[in-house]
Amino acid sequence: MLKEVRTLVESTEWAKAKELASKFLADFGETDTGKQNKDLSATLEKEAKDFELKKAEYLAQKVPDLYRARRTSLIAVYASTKYKIGEARSRATKIDEEILADLAQKLKSKPEEIAAAWEKRDQKPKTVSYGTGSWIVAGGQDGGLDTDAKYTPQAKNNNGQNNPFGGGGIGGRGRMNQQQKQQQQGQPQDLGRKLETSAEWWASASSTDRRNFIECEYARGSSVVKKEEKQKPCSTCKGEGIFKEVRMGTACDCKCPRCHGSKDDIIVTYW
To answer: Contact 171/157 with Cβ under 8 angstroms?
Structure first.
């Protein structure tokens, strides 16, 4: 009952808190716990009056911790694979609106009062990184092949020999069916390897990576926090964005499989 009284106080449900406190003292006033809390009703009465007289100060004391706790909760919710990446990113930009509405209801206040109390918080910096998902917001290639390079094998004659003339035997004698033509003609072959799509990254990323991603999205889009961004070279390509490789004897410029050509990780510090 005492725990419920404090919960009601946190929600500024003063009338209900005082009613429950009176019931507690009536039922358990003679117990050790009751005697330790004999002044509970009087304390709540004073807190209720102080709340009305000093509401702004009260909110300034209560709101920051409640705001941060609710924000952490919502970030975890939207980082779930229950949401597709596009929807999760969209919801991340509206987290502040949700928190203001939730706390206004909880603390029996207006959203403007909650926002004003949040402005008075101790500004504690927090740093978070998009990590391996940085390419999604940094303009990296979304899916497709890591290079446009192609390899064209030499055409072969009916005997499997390289044929510089590309025909069906010396002088072009003999008739060829379609399959034979395809075998003899040198068809270009893609040398690229598949890059992940953003949806594939989201589905395979760890819960921590998804939470960090959504937290970065929140911080970058929020109008109620201050923020700074930094870049750190991709740990795989060292900030080059590409690798030079030789595939099937062909020199290729291949996009980095980690940063998808975007070169850097994005790191956000906000407070």
So the answer is: no
Do β-strands 264-270 and 227-233 pair in parallel, antiparallel, or remain unpaired? antiparallel
With vertex at residue 268, the alpha carbon angle to CA 82 and CA 115, rounded to the nearest 5 degrees, is 75
Quick one: 74 and 157 in the same domain?
A: no
Question: pLDDT per residue over 97-156, tens digit each?
Answer: 999 999 999 998 999 999 999 999 999 999 999 999 999 999 999 999 999 999 988 765
> Which pLDDT tens digit goes with each residue over 7-28?
998 877 888 999 999 999 999 9
Please say whether the beta carbons of 265 and 232 come within 8 A.
yes
* Same domain assignment for residues 172 and 110: no
State whether 206 and 265 are in the same domain.
yes
- Cβ contacts of residue 51 below 8 Å, gap of 6+? 12, 14, 58
Residue 216 near residue 130, CB atoms below 8 Å: yes
Residues 118, 13, single domain; the answer is: yes
Nearest residue to 253 via CA among 234, 237, 235: 237
The parent domain of residue 167 ranges over 153-187
Provide the domain count of the chain: 3
C-beta of residue 81 within 8 angstroms of C-beta of residue 206: no
Contact (CB, 8 A) for 115 and 97: no
Q: Give dist(CA 164, CA 154) in Å, integer.
A: 8
3-state secondary structure of 41: helix
